[in-house]
Amino acid sequence: MKIFSRLYQQVMIWSMHRHAPIYLSLNSFVESIFWPVPVDVMLAPMALSKPKRAWYYASLATVFSVLGAGFGYLLGYALWDPVVQPFIATMGYEGKIDVARHWFEEWGIWVIFIASFTPIPYKVFTVTAGLLHMLFLPFVLVSLVGRGLRFFLVAGLMVWGGVRMEAKLIRYIDILGWLCIIAAVAAYLILSN
Q1: Is the CB of residue 33 less than 8 Å from the CB of residue 123?
Q2: What is the pLDDT averaged over residues 19-36?
Q3: Residue 11 and residue 24: Cα distance in Å, rounded?
Q4: Domains identified in the chain, total number
Q5: Whole domain around residue 121: which residue ranges?
Q6: Which stretches are transmembrane (predicted)?
Q7: 185 vs 45: which has the higher pLDDT
Q8: 104: closest CA among 120, 87, 84?
């Protein structure tokens, strides 16, 4: 099934929209709290379609993602019982929060860096950091470094690869899309056990 190639073409059209930086900023903010769509889905095509603005886009993604992380932290810190916990229960994420707590106990602040840089659901760790009353300044600094590294790496790869990378990406987009789905399901199964 070639659904990812059609989706890719649509995302490339959206990435050139005049309001794309606003959409990227909003997506970056809410993805750090609850939104399931990764920032990279918008950032990569935006950097590819306008390479001269790639660093600006990476900066927007970083700043708004860390602002969203701060908001997620505050939700976990101040509104766990009345707001977050019922939402977590409704979504069936109790197991993920338990895993996040365990990882915090085992790795401390490093878990924020790992979650901010890798595809692990960062939102779970932003809220859990607040719930566990992690020191806010180290949380923000580590988030800034991890998110910045990730988003500048994505933008840099798009600038570096340019048209050649896009041609290869288009050729293999459906295979890569299905591999990402499989990886996401595997990560979910691992985190939920």
Answers
A1: yes
A2: 90
A3: 12
A4: 1
A5: 3-192
A6: 20-43, 55-80, 107-125, 137-163, 169-191
A7: 45
A8: 120
